[in-house]
Design brief:
13% of the residues lie in helices and 45% in strands. It has 334 residues and is mainly beta.
Length: 334
Protein backbone atom coordinates (compact mmCIF):
# COMPACT_ATOMS: atom_id res chain seq x y z
CA UNK A 1 0.00 0.00 0.00
CA UNK A 2 1.23 3.50 -0.78
CA UNK A 3 1.47 5.88 2.16
CA UNK A 4 1.39 9.27 0.52
CA UNK A 5 -1.39 11.30 -1.03
CA UNK A 6 -2.60 9.57 -4.21
CA UNK A 7 -4.66 10.49 -7.22
CA UNK A 8 -8.09 8.89 -7.32
CA UNK A 9 -6.99 6.57 -10.11
CA UNK A 10 -3.99 5.28 -8.20
CA UNK A 11 -6.07 4.73 -5.07
CA UNK A 12 -8.67 2.75 -7.02
CA UNK A 13 -6.00 0.63 -8.70
CA UNK A 14 -4.54 -0.19 -5.31
CA UNK A 15 -7.91 -1.01 -3.73
CA UNK A 16 -9.03 -3.16 -6.64
CA UNK A 17 -6.00 -5.44 -6.54
CA UNK A 18 -6.01 -5.76 -2.75
CA UNK A 19 -9.76 -6.37 -2.53
CA UNK A 20 -9.54 -9.11 -5.12
CA UNK A 21 -6.75 -11.03 -3.46
CA UNK A 22 -6.62 -9.94 0.15
CA UNK A 23 -3.46 -8.61 1.71
CA UNK A 24 -0.33 -9.64 -0.14
CA UNK A 25 0.94 -11.32 2.99
CA UNK A 26 -2.00 -13.72 3.18
CA UNK A 27 -3.99 -14.03 0.01
CA UNK A 28 -6.43 -16.86 0.56
CA UNK A 29 -7.10 -19.58 -1.93
CA UNK A 30 -10.00 -21.67 -3.14
CA UNK A 31 -10.33 -25.41 -2.61
CA UNK A 32 -8.89 -27.42 -5.48
CA UNK A 33 -11.44 -29.53 -7.26
CA UNK A 34 -11.94 -31.41 -10.51
CA UNK A 35 -12.28 -29.15 -13.52
CA UNK A 36 -15.58 -29.06 -15.40
CA UNK A 37 -13.99 -27.50 -18.45
CA UNK A 38 -14.98 -23.94 -17.52
CA UNK A 39 -11.41 -22.66 -17.82
CA UNK A 40 -10.01 -20.20 -20.33
CA UNK A 41 -7.94 -21.77 -23.11
CA UNK A 42 -4.15 -21.60 -22.72
CA UNK A 43 -3.86 -19.58 -25.91
CA UNK A 44 -6.34 -16.97 -24.66
CA UNK A 45 -4.62 -16.78 -21.27
CA UNK A 46 -1.19 -16.34 -22.82
CA UNK A 47 -2.49 -13.65 -25.16
CA UNK A 48 -4.07 -11.77 -22.25
CA UNK A 49 -0.89 -11.82 -20.17
CA UNK A 50 1.47 -10.86 -23.01
CA UNK A 51 -0.93 -8.27 -24.42
CA UNK A 52 -1.53 -6.62 -21.07
CA UNK A 53 2.19 -6.46 -20.31
CA UNK A 54 2.97 -4.92 -23.70
CA UNK A 55 0.15 -2.41 -23.20
CA UNK A 56 1.67 -1.36 -19.87
CA UNK A 57 5.01 -0.50 -21.48
CA UNK A 58 3.33 1.11 -24.51
CA UNK A 59 1.23 3.29 -22.20
CA UNK A 60 4.32 4.31 -20.26
CA UNK A 61 6.18 5.21 -23.46
CA UNK A 62 3.23 7.20 -24.78
CA UNK A 63 2.90 9.14 -21.55
CA UNK A 64 6.60 9.99 -21.58
CA UNK A 65 6.58 11.15 -25.20
CA UNK A 66 3.43 13.21 -24.68
CA UNK A 67 4.39 14.59 -21.29
CA UNK A 68 4.09 18.17 -22.51
CA UNK A 69 0.47 17.56 -23.44
CA UNK A 70 -0.50 15.69 -20.27
CA UNK A 71 -3.33 16.97 -18.11
CA UNK A 72 -1.75 19.05 -15.32
CA UNK A 73 -4.16 17.37 -12.87
CA UNK A 74 -2.63 13.96 -13.71
CA UNK A 75 -5.68 12.47 -15.42
CA UNK A 76 -3.71 10.29 -17.89
CA UNK A 77 -3.98 6.50 -17.92
CA UNK A 78 -2.10 4.86 -15.07
CA UNK A 79 -0.54 1.43 -15.44
CA UNK A 80 1.50 -0.81 -13.18
CA UNK A 81 3.12 -4.24 -13.17
CA UNK A 82 4.53 -6.22 -10.30
CA UNK A 83 5.29 -9.56 -8.72
CA UNK A 84 4.89 -10.98 -5.22
CA UNK A 85 6.51 -14.08 -3.74
CA UNK A 86 5.22 -15.82 -0.62
CA UNK A 87 5.81 -18.94 1.46
CA UNK A 88 2.09 -19.85 1.47
CA UNK A 89 -0.86 -18.84 -0.66
CA UNK A 90 -4.29 -18.48 0.93
CA UNK A 91 -7.43 -17.09 -0.69
CA UNK A 92 -9.77 -15.62 1.92
CA UNK A 93 -8.54 -18.16 4.44
CA UNK A 94 -8.57 -21.22 2.15
CA UNK A 95 -5.19 -22.86 1.50
CA UNK A 96 -4.08 -23.11 -2.12
CA UNK A 97 -0.38 -23.95 -1.83
CA UNK A 98 2.30 -24.13 0.88
CA UNK A 99 5.14 -25.96 -0.86
CA UNK A 100 7.71 -24.92 -3.44
CA UNK A 101 8.07 -21.58 -5.17
CA UNK A 102 4.95 -19.35 -5.22
CA UNK A 103 5.26 -16.31 -7.51
CA UNK A 104 2.35 -13.99 -8.33
CA UNK A 105 2.88 -11.56 -11.24
CA UNK A 106 0.22 -9.03 -12.21
CA UNK A 107 -0.54 -6.09 -14.50
CA UNK A 108 -3.12 -3.35 -13.94
CA UNK A 109 -4.57 -0.29 -15.74
CA UNK A 110 -6.72 2.61 -14.57
CA UNK A 111 -8.47 4.87 -17.10
CA UNK A 112 -9.86 8.17 -15.75
CA UNK A 113 -13.43 8.78 -16.93
CA UNK A 114 -14.30 11.98 -15.09
CA UNK A 115 -12.43 14.13 -12.59
CA UNK A 116 -14.30 16.91 -10.85
CA UNK A 117 -13.88 18.98 -7.72
CA UNK A 118 -15.91 16.65 -5.49
CA UNK A 119 -16.02 13.41 -7.45
CA UNK A 120 -13.80 11.35 -9.73
CA UNK A 121 -14.74 8.30 -11.80
CA UNK A 122 -12.41 5.70 -13.32
CA UNK A 123 -12.37 2.36 -15.14
CA UNK A 124 -9.99 -0.38 -13.99
CA UNK A 125 -8.87 -3.61 -15.71
CA UNK A 126 -6.14 -6.06 -14.89
CA UNK A 127 -4.79 -9.60 -14.69
CA UNK A 128 -3.34 -11.41 -11.67
CA UNK A 129 -1.55 -14.79 -11.74
CA UNK A 130 -0.23 -17.39 -9.31
CA UNK A 131 2.63 -19.65 -10.45
CA UNK A 132 3.40 -22.69 -8.30
CA UNK A 133 6.40 -24.99 -8.10
CA UNK A 134 4.68 -27.35 -5.63
CA UNK A 135 2.00 -30.09 -5.93
CA UNK A 136 -0.65 -27.71 -7.33
CA UNK A 137 1.81 -26.58 -9.99
CA UNK A 138 4.79 -28.02 -11.81
CA UNK A 139 5.23 -30.89 -9.33
CA UNK A 140 1.68 -32.11 -9.95
CA UNK A 141 1.10 -35.01 -12.33
CA UNK A 142 0.61 -33.62 -15.83
CA UNK A 143 0.26 -30.05 -14.50
CA UNK A 144 2.00 -26.80 -15.38
CA UNK A 145 3.09 -24.17 -12.87
CA UNK A 146 0.36 -21.71 -13.98
CA UNK A 147 -2.13 -22.45 -11.20
CA UNK A 148 -4.32 -19.36 -11.37
CA UNK A 149 -5.23 -16.51 -13.71
CA UNK A 150 -7.70 -13.85 -12.56
CA UNK A 151 -9.05 -11.22 -14.94
CA UNK A 152 -11.09 -8.28 -13.65
CA UNK A 153 -12.79 -5.07 -14.75
CA UNK A 154 -14.47 -2.46 -12.60
CA UNK A 155 -15.67 1.06 -12.03
CA UNK A 156 -14.28 3.19 -9.19
CA UNK A 157 -15.60 6.40 -7.71
CA UNK A 158 -13.95 8.82 -5.29
CA UNK A 159 -15.89 11.37 -3.22
CA UNK A 160 -14.28 14.43 -1.66
CA UNK A 161 -10.84 12.88 -1.99
CA UNK A 162 -11.17 10.51 0.97
CA UNK A 163 -14.11 8.14 0.38
CA UNK A 164 -13.64 5.60 -2.42
CA UNK A 165 -15.88 2.87 -3.73
CA UNK A 166 -15.71 0.31 -6.52
CA UNK A 167 -17.74 -2.38 -8.26
CA UNK A 168 -15.59 -5.04 -9.94
CA UNK A 169 -16.42 -8.13 -12.02
CA UNK A 170 -13.83 -10.89 -11.51
CA UNK A 171 -13.22 -14.21 -13.29
CA UNK A 172 -10.95 -16.57 -11.33
CA UNK A 173 -9.68 -19.41 -13.51
CA UNK A 174 -7.03 -22.15 -13.42
CA UNK A 175 -4.86 -22.64 -16.54
CA UNK A 176 -3.63 -26.02 -15.23
CA UNK A 177 -7.23 -27.11 -14.41
CA UNK A 178 -6.61 -27.35 -10.65
CA UNK A 179 -10.03 -25.82 -9.91
CA UNK A 180 -13.15 -24.80 -11.77
CA UNK A 181 -13.76 -21.21 -12.83
CA UNK A 182 -15.45 -18.85 -10.37
CA UNK A 183 -17.18 -15.60 -11.35
CA UNK A 184 -17.91 -12.96 -8.73
CA UNK A 185 -18.96 -9.35 -8.24
CA UNK A 186 -16.90 -7.39 -5.69
CA UNK A 187 -18.26 -4.22 -4.06
CA UNK A 188 -15.91 -2.21 -1.86
CA UNK A 189 -15.76 1.05 0.04
CA UNK A 190 -12.82 2.61 1.88
CA UNK A 191 -12.13 5.76 3.86
CA UNK A 192 -8.82 7.61 3.81
CA UNK A 193 -8.76 9.12 7.28
CA UNK A 194 -5.19 10.43 7.14
CA UNK A 195 -6.48 14.01 6.97
CA UNK A 196 -8.03 13.63 10.42
CA UNK A 197 -4.62 13.23 12.01
CA UNK A 198 -2.74 15.91 10.12
CA UNK A 199 0.61 14.14 10.10
CA UNK A 200 2.63 15.95 12.75
CA UNK A 201 5.60 14.51 14.63
CA UNK A 202 4.03 11.05 14.82
CA UNK A 203 3.73 10.86 11.01
CA UNK A 204 0.62 8.72 11.53
CA UNK A 205 -1.42 8.29 8.35
CA UNK A 206 -4.69 7.01 9.78
CA UNK A 207 -6.46 3.67 10.23
CA UNK A 208 -7.64 3.38 6.59
CA UNK A 209 -10.86 1.37 7.24
CA UNK A 210 -12.43 -0.63 4.40
CA UNK A 211 -15.36 -2.95 3.69
CA UNK A 212 -15.59 -5.56 0.92
CA UNK A 213 -18.67 -7.57 -0.07
CA UNK A 214 -18.32 -10.37 -2.64
CA UNK A 215 -21.23 -12.00 -4.48
CA UNK A 216 -20.43 -15.33 -6.15
CA UNK A 217 -22.22 -15.38 -9.50
CA UNK A 218 -21.11 -18.80 -10.75
CA UNK A 219 -18.93 -21.38 -8.97
CA UNK A 220 -17.81 -21.53 -5.34
CA UNK A 221 -14.40 -20.62 -3.96
CA UNK A 222 -14.92 -22.89 -0.93
CA UNK A 223 -15.82 -25.90 -3.05
CA UNK A 224 -19.31 -25.99 -1.51
CA UNK A 225 -22.65 -26.61 -3.18
CA UNK A 226 -24.02 -23.05 -3.20
CA UNK A 227 -22.87 -19.65 -4.43
CA UNK A 228 -22.07 -17.53 -1.39
CA UNK A 229 -21.76 -13.97 -0.17
CA UNK A 230 -18.54 -12.90 1.54
CA UNK A 231 -17.89 -9.93 3.83
CA UNK A 232 -14.48 -8.56 4.77
CA UNK A 233 -13.88 -5.82 7.34
CA UNK A 234 -10.42 -4.30 7.52
CA UNK A 235 -8.21 -1.54 8.80
CA UNK A 236 -4.60 -0.75 7.98
CA UNK A 237 -3.00 1.71 10.42
CA UNK A 238 -0.08 3.30 8.59
CA UNK A 239 2.81 5.62 9.34
CA UNK A 240 5.99 6.99 7.85
CA UNK A 241 8.64 5.07 9.76
CA UNK A 242 11.71 6.83 8.35
CA UNK A 243 11.44 10.25 6.72
CA UNK A 244 14.25 10.48 4.20
CA UNK A 245 14.04 12.28 0.87
CA UNK A 246 16.09 9.65 -0.93
CA UNK A 247 14.91 6.48 0.85
CA UNK A 248 11.77 6.84 3.04
CA UNK A 249 10.33 3.74 4.69
CA UNK A 250 6.63 3.31 5.48
CA UNK A 251 5.01 0.78 7.80
CA UNK A 252 1.47 -0.53 7.94
CA UNK A 253 -0.34 -2.95 10.23
CA UNK A 254 -3.15 -4.60 8.25
CA UNK A 255 -5.92 -6.32 10.21
CA UNK A 256 -8.87 -8.07 8.53
CA UNK A 257 -11.77 -10.38 9.32
CA UNK A 258 -13.36 -12.62 6.68
CA UNK A 259 -17.02 -13.48 7.28
CA UNK A 260 -19.74 -15.43 5.50
CA UNK A 261 -23.04 -13.64 4.96
CA UNK A 262 -24.40 -16.68 3.10
CA UNK A 263 -22.84 -20.05 2.14
CA UNK A 264 -19.28 -18.79 1.75
CA UNK A 265 -17.52 -21.02 4.30
CA UNK A 266 -19.44 -24.28 3.90
CA UNK A 267 -18.38 -27.36 5.85
CA UNK A 268 -18.35 -30.98 4.74
CA UNK A 269 -22.04 -31.41 5.66
CA UNK A 270 -23.04 -28.18 3.92
CA UNK A 271 -23.23 -26.14 7.13
CA UNK A 272 -22.19 -22.51 6.79
CA UNK A 273 -20.04 -20.75 9.39
CA UNK A 274 -20.25 -16.97 9.85
CA UNK A 275 -16.65 -16.56 11.04
CA UNK A 276 -14.07 -17.55 8.45
CA UNK A 277 -10.76 -16.05 9.52
CA UNK A 278 -8.95 -13.16 11.19
CA UNK A 279 -5.59 -11.87 10.05
CA UNK A 280 -3.07 -9.35 11.33
CA UNK A 281 0.46 -8.42 10.42
CA UNK A 282 3.07 -5.80 9.64
CA UNK A 283 4.33 -4.60 6.27
CA UNK A 284 7.22 -2.33 5.26
CA UNK A 285 7.61 -0.55 1.92
CA UNK A 286 10.09 1.81 0.32
CA UNK A 287 10.54 3.38 -3.12
CA UNK A 288 13.62 2.38 -5.11
CA UNK A 289 14.70 5.95 -5.79
CA UNK A 290 17.94 4.95 -7.51
CA UNK A 291 15.99 3.63 -10.52
CA UNK A 292 15.86 6.27 -13.32
CA UNK A 293 12.47 7.99 -13.57
CA UNK A 294 12.19 7.06 -17.26
CA UNK A 295 11.90 3.41 -16.17
CA UNK A 296 8.86 4.09 -13.99
CA UNK A 297 8.30 4.36 -10.27
CA UNK A 298 9.70 1.28 -8.52
CA UNK A 299 8.89 0.18 -4.96
CA UNK A 300 9.80 -2.77 -2.77
CA UNK A 301 7.69 -4.23 0.04
CA UNK A 302 7.82 -7.08 2.52
CA UNK A 303 5.78 -8.31 5.43
CA UNK A 304 4.67 -11.04 7.76
CA UNK A 305 1.18 -11.88 9.03
CA UNK A 306 -0.63 -14.44 11.18
CA UNK A 307 -3.84 -16.04 9.95
CA UNK A 308 -6.38 -17.45 12.44
CA UNK A 309 -9.02 -19.80 11.04
CA UNK A 310 -12.59 -20.64 12.05
CA UNK A 311 -13.76 -24.24 12.53
CA UNK A 312 -14.89 -24.86 8.95
CA UNK A 313 -11.73 -23.39 7.42
CA UNK A 314 -9.62 -25.32 9.91
CA UNK A 315 -11.22 -28.52 8.61
CA UNK A 316 -10.92 -27.48 4.95
CA UNK A 317 -7.23 -26.65 5.45
CA UNK A 318 -6.34 -29.98 7.06
CA UNK A 319 -6.66 -29.24 10.77
CA UNK A 320 -4.36 -26.24 11.27
CA UNK A 321 -6.05 -23.25 12.93
CA UNK A 322 -3.26 -20.70 12.44
CA UNK A 323 -0.59 -19.95 9.86
CA UNK A 324 2.41 -17.60 9.53
CA UNK A 325 2.78 -16.06 6.08
CA UNK A 326 5.79 -14.14 4.77
CA UNK A 327 5.87 -12.24 1.48
CA UNK A 328 7.94 -9.83 -0.61
CA UNK A 329 6.79 -7.71 -3.53
CA UNK A 330 8.10 -5.50 -6.33
CA UNK A 331 5.88 -2.95 -8.10
CA UNK A 332 6.58 -0.70 -11.08
CA UNK A 333 4.17 2.15 -11.77
CA UNK A 334 3.95 4.24 -14.94
Amino acid sequence: MEFASQTQATAFRQASRENRNGNSQARGTRVMRISTGKTLSSAVQTALVVGATMLAFDAAAAQESEGALADPQGSQVESSIGIDVTNQYFFRGILQEKEGVIAQPWVDFVFPIREGKDMALSFNIGIWNSLHGGPTGSEGAGMTMHYELDAYAGIGVDFAGNVSGSVTYVVLSSPNSAFTTVQELDVSISFDDSGLFGGGPSRFLGFQPSVLVVFELDGQSDGGGNEGIYLELGIEPSLVLIEDESQPISASFPVAAGLSLSNYFEGAMGSDEFFGFAQGGVSLSTPLSFVPARMGSWSLSGGVSILFLGDNLETINGGDNSEVIVSFGLEIGF
